[in-house]
Amino acid sequence: LCKYVFDKFSLKRNEKLLDLGCGRGEFTRGFKDLGMVVEGLDNCEMATKIKKDWNVKIIDFTKEKLPFDDATFDVIFCKSVIEHFYYPEEIFREAFRILKPGGKFITMTPDWEAVYKIFYEDIDHKTPFTKISLCNLLLRYDFKNVDVQDFYHLRYTWKNRFFRIIPRLIAFLIPIDVSPNIKLNPLTKMIKFSREKQLMAYGEKLS
To answer: Structure pTM?
Structure first.
């Protein structure tokens, strides 16, 4: 996924990236392996233990501003983060502040239209998004060149948009949610990720 994002949005080696909501550090590691200078930020102490020599900070997102100076990062990436806040607009405001001019904000979140039946099964989910609401939120905080696209965690859909019809058909023909207790095999994985569609949003800070 990191390589896909790196190529899709023309990221570069040695650019400074913030992994916002870094969790266990999968994406922190992925972007570092691609040659980027990565810092992590999370609200859970677990994140500081992912690797002792990584630069990871812990804050309370609901009470504190992001602990960085203005115009610090070339890229901010956050996946499955913004839906966990009652007031996600604060994340967008702060992301714009700490991005350098020309900086890129990339965020991924569940698509409410696809997952409304299961969204609140995660008791930490607070705010759902649609393409329109996510686009409008980026525009509200002065991001430019905004784009919001469907995203499936199925690699064959990443580079050929035509193949996205396959998970749509699966989700329509097999309206069964995969229990989190079921061990994923190739078939159940395809069903799960066909139904759990996400949105991938992009915006630039041009000034």
So the answer is: 0.88
Q: Are 17 and 77 a contacting pair, CB within 8 Å?
A: yes
Interatomic CA distance for residues 163 and 40, integer angstroms = 33
Phi-psi region of 152 (alpha: psi -120 to 50; beta: other; left: phi over 0): beta
Q: What is the pLDDT of residues 90-122, one digit of tens each?
A: 999 999 999 999 999 999 999 999 888 888 989
- Rounded-to-integer distance, Cα 83 and Cα 87, Å: 9
- The DSSP output letter for 84 is G
> CA-CA distance, 33 to 36, in Å (whole number)?
7
Say how far apart CA 16 and CA 71 lie, in whole Å: 11
Find out whether 86 and 116 touch, Cβ atoms under 8 Å: no
